[in-house]
Amino acid sequence: LENKLITLTTDFGLKDPYVGAMKGALLKVNPGAVITDITHLIGAGDLPGAAFVLLGACRYFPPDSIHLAVIDPGVGGVRAALIIETARYTFVGPDNGIFSLALQSEEILRIVRITNAEYFPGPISPTFHGRDIFAPVAGHLSLGVDAGRFGEQIDIDEMEKIALPEPSLENESITGEVIHIDNFGNLITNIPQSMLDGLNAFADRDRVIVRIKEREIKGIKDTYGESADEAALCAITGGTGLIEIALNMGSAADELRSKAGETVKVVSV
Amino acid sequence: LENKLITLTTDFGLKDPYVGAMKGALLKVNPGAVITDITHLIGAGDLPGAAFVLLGACRYFPPDSIHLAVIDPGVGGVRAALIIETARYTFVGPDNGIFSLALQSEEILRIVRITNAEYFPGPISPTFHGRDIFAPVAGHLSLGVDAGRFGEQIDIDEMEKIALPEPSLENESITGEVIHIDNFGNLITNIPQSMLDGLNAFADRDRVIVRIKEREIKGIKDTYGESADEAALCAITGGTGLIEIALNMGSAADELRSKAGETVKVVSV
Amino acid sequence: LENKLITLTTDFGLKDPYVGAMKGALLKVNPGAVITDITHLIGAGDLPGAAFVLLGACRYFPPDSIHLAVIDPGVGGVRAALIIETARYTFVGPDNGIFSLALQSEEILRIVRITNAEYFPGPISPTFHGRDIFAPVAGHLSLGVDAGRFGEQIDIDEMEKIALPEPSLENESITGEVIHIDNFGNLITNIPQSMLDGLNAFADRDRVIVRIKEREIKGIKDTYGESADEAALCAITGGTGLIEIALNMGSAADELRSKAGETVKVVSV
After folding, report:
1. CB atoms A21 and C249 under 8 Å
2. Which of A252, B217, C49, C62 is the most buried (most CB within 10 A)?
3. Residue B91, SS3?
4. What Cα–Cα distance (Å) separates residue B152 from each residue in A18, A20, B103, C147?
């Protein structure tokens, strides 16, 4: 079965020949592949950052899409190269946990360790597996080659996982942290809206208090525009279902001088 | 009638999952859509900046292209969501004036306020209409769904407009301003070459003087290379028909320490 | 013969309407063209930088691809516009040497100076040949129009060349320089691994010494991870076959405060 649609996520940046070379190598195998960039601006070797972006983007693509991601600190060291087949998608990339979060909402059918060099006949640069291994493998997958032909199946327990910091709940108080600062200066926390949904203390969203860096934000709103005071910080449920701290018409990150890792507390009054 | 070609203009930046999620949501509706990025680096919420970029890019695309743009400060507040059909194109985006300049050269046939949730069955994040409303709507339009099915037609007067500062003419002197600084450091003014064309005082282009920040530039040239002195500032007619101030092999913006909003005067000697 | 695949390399940046306008102009001629970005972040007018990126990316694309590149300092001055047909590809761009390095591994069949305005019927902005000449020409080439129809054939000696600094060999010591700093802070030199291959003095790669800025790096490794000390600088053979200086899990450029042009010596002990 042909799956023409391939998404691409890397930390290669946009000024070097690397992204172009990788796309070329993929198109050389399947000139009919349709490549869609998710991003190439993952921080160099930032595995949690990659996991977060893949979480926020992969699930919106059509069924049968191939998600190819290459964030590969150290490159060609000891880590394996994987194909992960789920009920909806095929994920391809290094075995270092970057797909951990995206896979939480997928049903894993099969995991294959890529070893069959027939599908990446080389030469192989030890420092550019994206171009020389992953791109041709994704190309062959998009032509309908069965994942089983690329190597041996492995167990889900053998696959690397990555853990983002988990929010904790104690005495009706949730403690989490900022995991990402987006293009708008919104502080995205690791606290899902769904964590509040089950708790009586947070039933009235207007009585929820979000604390960050000595500041108190009252209520969790639906949109940036709902806040009475335009210049005030607000807490909202973001597009990925996580609580975000935002500043209407401004940057909450600048206002709070906050970075990823900052502690965030959610309590009720 | 199927229109596969869709351009995309946003202020989402290139490092977050937002652009990928939006493209995925569009491709989920029409996997055969061909998406071409105009830019995702519009300043956050910069409506005039978006209007300028759309002016400079949209009209070069083939007839029947769909121009989807999401610069949406405040998101999901009171503003409507629009489909604007013109003789050549279909524009889709929030009703906040971003298409005002691009529409000046188009013949508007129909404007529809998007309300029919059949085409964006949700869930709808209040802060991410790009992914949850505009992308699927553009996907359905690209499949040939008639614009009239998305909601009620409105009058052109009901649509938001945006006005860039207009240049003024007094005593054979034109006063305008810098509206954009491009990648090369060229200062793009709001003064169209066509404004000079009709005036006798400016008939001899070599006798035109352009004044900015105490500096005088003599003549309006055709190319950067025409200037006698390589290191001198020059005034040229840029690719969008507007007068630009440039520095051959350098950045006029750096040389003049100039920003958008800077006053520019065009006089004759 | 139709060649749908077109790569695009420019110094236009990603925030202006220029890339979009150029893609639009190309798609207007051939709506079925498949455009793949190599990069738009070549430094403004940086011809050697463009030559390096094209070297690192073009050869990985499928045969019959069209490589369109517009880095054009001065624009529309005296330089010609060229189509260069090789055994594998078609290159299109200004005659200023940007393809020199990429052409080293191609067999040139024909070089045509573009003059036939039938294929770019205008209007032509003197400062935007990318949109008004090169894009429509590439569009017609992708539709299968023979290169000979765009103008007269010229000799290879009439084409501009660009020379990157060449490494020199004296007394079993190679002197080269840093030509590019990539997204990971790797310093890419102009010294090809193949230059060492032929020399007895460098037969044992562990006894090779790379000197840069008073620092000595021992051995040339295959991967970043091979080094004993994680925080130590290492020398490796990069993905384009050139010697690179890297810092595992860090930026060699930051560590060495090095820039393009820095002298690099390779000796043996």
Report:
1. no
2. A252
3. strand
4. 48, 44, 20, 51
